Every structure is written in structure tokens, then in C-alpha cells.
């Protein structure tokens, strides 16, 4: 039941706030503490709603920490990736040697069939390494997604009831599904692609300097603009991704709420109105996706133009060096292939950075749930709701009436009961939380929730007039159970 103490009538009327009552219970030792938590009015939900996480310096490190249980498979994947990258770096060099053998004819140091057979064996080994890398990387991502979903769901279920009043179901479901899937994809395909692009870029740059340093300087002139564009593009995409995920969760919330109350919608024939409301949310997602698509198209178009212009410059200058006898045809071919590798690698790194920013935007929402500590702790998880006498905070009983109580509550507890929180741990968003079978002394206009079985003083408490003031019954909730129940158990 919920009571509010009213002051003596002095010509002013008081409006009663709407309060939602949700019963729950917790087992502590042999006794059962039955209590109810009263959340604030809906107007106060925004104050308790989790705010979007701001970018932090350790976000990438926190995201990569999900690899810890996958150390051995990750080592296998990275090893296979290294083998594959080294073999890939041999392709331009081998092609150049084939061209030199064909050009030299009988004067070549190695016959053409031998060169082709040797290159074929190397490429077969590279294909096997790729199979191992892709399979291992995909399974790492799937296992990370699976664990992340389980941990996120468990963290959600551990939260207090006030958290669910402040958070919509659709938003929580979106984090469980879309956000965790995106994180797993980033940590599997995207990270593997980023490592491969990094290895190819370093290997290609090394080989072009070995082949011809003069042409290398011409080719690398395009790198600084691409790098600056990648950083700016990644930051912009990160912001848009966070907004897209938020708008998508809101659209899911609208659909979930209306589908869960379809009878009410049908009674009032509001189907067209709800369709328009959902269309508005979906259109907002589409508008943000359009901005992200335009930014992606502009960036990759610029990267493609820069790479092609760099290749054209290398081809013109290198052709002149071949005509002057300073470079062989095979070396020029190898250099051009390495130049293409560098361009593709930087494009891959740019895409990796953009996808990584998407993953960070999604992970910040998921880690917010994983790291959130419930304001009402569950005893089944080795936490105690009731402070013991060995703790530094004094127990609030009838013997220690002078000790402060949580904000907004003034109560006298029987000597057999204690307060649930010290003042520093008093949960926000709750009007009060009191134990059963207690004698209460309320402030003027204060609220009281009491949960008790039949015959334990409900009527007497309603009829009492502390200090000549009136106790007014705001709401009453009956809960019938065959036996006691415990938070986290059914």
C-alpha cells in the first residue's frame, strides 16, 4: 500500500503525485525482507535515463579488451595473416621476374617453367593460410558476440526496477541485437582487414623503396592528403553512427510499444496515426544514413582519384626511366603493382578506421550497460542489502534514531530491522524503500510504502493520525503468492 501524510488543513489544497508501485522481495539469511520500490513520476524518468557516453581516450583499448578470452585463436589468426601477407607481397616481385625472364629469353638465369612452378606453390600456401585466417577470425567474432549478448542480458536483469522505468524495452533490445552484432563484426572481419592492410602497406612501401627510391617519392605524395581525409571522415562517421543507432532504437521502441498494445490501438482506430509516427522515426534514420552514405562516397571517391593520379605519375616517370635504361621492364611492373597495393592498403585502412569508429560508437552503449551497477544489489550474487554491524556505517534502528535516513524519508524501524542503505548509497529515482512490519513517522507530505501480509497492521496504520495529521491512502496493490519469492528467482 502507499500512504501520504497530509498536513493540517490550512486552506490550501495539495495535488497527489502519480506513483507507480512495483513489489519485489529479497531473502536475507533465514528471514524474508519484503519491500516495495516506488519510482518517481514519468516526468522524472529523463533524469535517471542513461546519457550517451562521451568519447574517451581508452575506448579503443576497452573494445579490444574483448579479445582476452580469445588469445590462442587470435594468435593463430594473426600468424596465418602474417604468412598470407608475406606471400601476397611476393606476387609483384614474382610477376616482375617473369617479365624479365620473358624479355631476356635464353639469357635468363632461371627457366620460365621453373619460375612459374615456384610461384604456383607459394600462392597455394598463401591460399591455405587465408582459409585458416578467415575461419578463425569469423569464429572469434561469433564467440565475442555470443558472450557479449549473454553478459549484457545478465547485466540488464540485475538492474533495479527503477532502471526499467527509465529505459525503454526497445532500446535495450537494440543493444542486445544490433549493437552486439556490430561489435562482433568489427572485431572479426574489420580488425582482420585492418591488420592485413597495415601489413601490406608496410611491405609494399618497403619494396618500392628497394626497387626504385625516386619513383617511391612520387607515389607517396598522395599519402598525406588521404591520411588527413581518413581521420576527418572517421570522426564524422562515428558521430553519425551513434545518432543512427539511437534513432533506430527509438523506432524500435515505437513499434514495440504499439505492437504490445495493439488492442488499444485497434479500439481507437489509430492504425494510420501509428503508421505515420513509425514512418517519422524511420525517416529520421534514413536521413542520417543518407548523410553517412554521402560522406562515404565522397571520401572513397577522393581516395580513388588520388591513387589513380599517383599511379599515372609513376607510370609516366617510370616509363621514361625504362627508356633511359635506368630501370628494367620487370622492375617497373613490380613497382606499379606495389603502388597499387599501397593504394588499396590505404583505402582498406581508411575503411578500417571508419568501421572501428562505428564499433566504438556501438560499444559505448553496450559497455554502459555492462558497467552499470544496480542500485539495489541482489543477495543471490553475494551482495547484502542489509548493512552488518561490522561495517563502518551505523545501522539505523530504533536504538540509533539519531542516525540520518535516506533523503525524503523519516522513519523509526523496530530493533529487529535495519535500513537497507547508508546515505551515500541511497538509490536515486526512488521516493522511499521501507521494510515490512514497521512503525512509521512521516514528514508532512511524505510518502510511505508498506508491504505486509494480512493481519499485520494495515488497517491500524491507515487509521492512525500521527501528531494529529491525516494519512491518506493513495493506492493499494494486492499480491498473492503461494510462498515467498526472491529477487532473481521465480
Automatic annotation (TrEMBL):
Entry keyword set: ATP-binding, Membrane, Nucleotide-binding, Transmembrane, Transmembrane helix, Transport
Sequence intervals crossing the membrane: 74-95, 115-134, 294-315, 335-356
InterPro entries on file: ABC1_TM_dom, ABC1_TM_sf, Type_1_exporter
Domain ABC transmembrane type-1: 75-358
Superkingdom per UniProt: Eukaryota
Protein topology in the membrane: Multi-pass membrane protein
Compartmental location: Membrane
A single GO molecular function term of this UniProt record: ABC-type oligopeptide transporter activity
GO BP term (any one): oligopeptide export from mitochondrion
GO cellular component, one term: mitochondrial inner membrane
A Pfam family annotated for this UniProt entry: ABC_membrane
The keyword Metal-binding appears for this protein: no
The keyword Transmembrane helix is assigned to this record: yes
Entries under PANTHER family matching the protein: ATP-BINDING CASSETTE SUB-FAMILY B MEMBER 10, MITOCHONDRIAL, ATP-DEPENDENT PERMEASE MDL1, MITOCHONDRIAL
Protein name: ABC transmembrane type-1 domain-containing protein
Organism whose genome encodes this protein: Phytophthora fragariae
